[in-house]
Every structure is written in structure tokens, then in C-alpha cells.
Amino acid sequence: MDLRKEAELLAKICIPVYGITFLIKMISAYLTTNAFGAIGTENPMPDTAMLFLGFSQAINAFLAPVALGIWLYVRARAHNYNPLLWGAFGLVANLFAAAIFCLVRAHAELSFNKEVVRD
Length: 119
Hints:
Layout: H1 3-35, H2 47-78, H3 83-93, H4 95-113
Helix pairs in contact: 1-2, 2-3, 2-4, 3-4
């Protein structure tokens, strides 16, 4: 197993996803502080702004786990592991699941390549 290539593939997925969520958070912060006025002032945020903020938070909460779940599903399927199990684990545990998957693959490869020594 080439751990460097696995990490690069995961980074190609994670960096754009986290960049998109960062941009959404920055737009949300701008809208809440500048465009619609501060909360508790005479100019409260319109309902559409509240809807956008709620929607943007939902996107931020689900975008990264879904991307990691898809990555784990594809990688598990390519290496003859249970793809549904690893995909669901990626949805729940995120980067921890990706780390466990890489450890399991590394262990499987090491034990496959180990020669049996007989006395």
C-alpha cells in the first residue's frame, strides 16, 4: 500500500470540500454582521437571510462527512472490503474513519507480505 498516494487522494477530496465550507461560513458571517445588521438592533435580519444561514450551516455540517463517506466507499470497493460498512463509517466518524481504513489496509498488506517462518 502506498500511504502517500492514499493521503494525496484524500487531500484532493478534503481540501476543496473544506474550502467550500470555509467560503460558505465567511459569506454567512458577512451577511449576519454587515448586510443585515446586528441581531438585536432595529434592523433585524429578514426571513430569507435566516433561511440562508440555516441552509448554509446544514451544508457545512453534511458536506465533509458525505465526501469522506463517498471516498471510503470507493476505496473499500476497489480493495474488496465491505463498501457499505466503510461508507457508513465515513459518514459517522469522518477523518477518524479514513485513518482507521488506512491502518487496516496497511496491516492487511503487511500481514500478506510477511513470510511464514517455520522452525
